[in-house]
Amino acid sequence: xxxxxxxxxxxxxxxxxxxxxxxxxxxxxxxxxxxxxxxxxxxxxxxxxxxxxxxxxxxxxxxxxxxxxxxxxxxxxxxxxxxxxxxxxxxxxxxxxxxxxxxxxxxxxxxxxxxxxxxxxxxxxxxxxxxxxxxxxxxxxxxxxxxxxxxxxxxxxxxxxxxxxxxxxxxxxxxxxxxxxxxxxxxxxxxxxxxxxxxxxxxxxxxxxxxxxxxxxxxxxxxxxxxxxxxxxxxxxxxxxxxxxxxxxxxxxxxxxxxxxxxxxxxxxxxxxxxxxxxxxxxxxxxxxxxxxxxxxxxxxxxxxxxxxxxxxxxx
Length: 316
What we know:
With 316 residues, this protein is α/β, with parallel strands linked by helices. The protein contains 13 helices and 8 strands. It has helices at residues 2-28, 80-86, 112-127, 140-149, 174-183, 188-196, 199-210, 219-234, 237-244, 253-258, 274-282, 300-303, 305-315, and strands at 39-44, 47-54, 63-67, 91-95, 131-136, 154-160, 263-268, 288-293.
């Protein structure tokens, strides 16, 4: 009797999850309104990468690249208000990183060097050497590793609320490797992904960790993150599987030791342990500088984007 019950319940559960996935995919992708202005595409061996380009009106403007937080749902739209202001004096390029936003989301094993390679090729083909770069969250690792491979490509790096240095050195355990396999599975993995990136869960993460003043969270921005996380039939789950299992992690210690240029950190005052995090980086880069923006959290460049741009202009 028990075996018969299991034989009925397991197919039933799989059918339920497949049905739920189909409904979520349909509703999340209904009336997706990803802005299309300033949009360009860059062809790579792993598909098309979307980027926003904001032209500077001056004849000669130094370019700057903006990298969003590397997490499903996020995109260059994180930087739009900042880019519009910075473009008064600079040509701004804001990328949708592979697996995010309007860029392709191939079914592959996402690693940090995938993004390092993309960034160096983008500089070589689109912006030219000597570009400044501003990163959000964990994308800092991509910039520092890209600079190690091609020091001439980048002039300055500004890191906005990076994670702790120690977190980049945590490599996958056997259990986390198993987790990655589960998350990449067709039905169950997609179902777990949909639970993690539901509309309510997405908004709750933004309200709890993203903003000091929740009144500054634009509901349209929260909705855009939710829709972007499910855009292209939940293909972003392959990126999430890599993040959740620490497949993107690489120890940055040696790269920081070799970094010889100015390195700037901008923290939100409510970002947890920001002074301790800065101290851990300062031990490896003596030329590191820190700015703390009051009354902001994880996204100071959204909450106080004008003040953020003022800091950037002073630094660069």
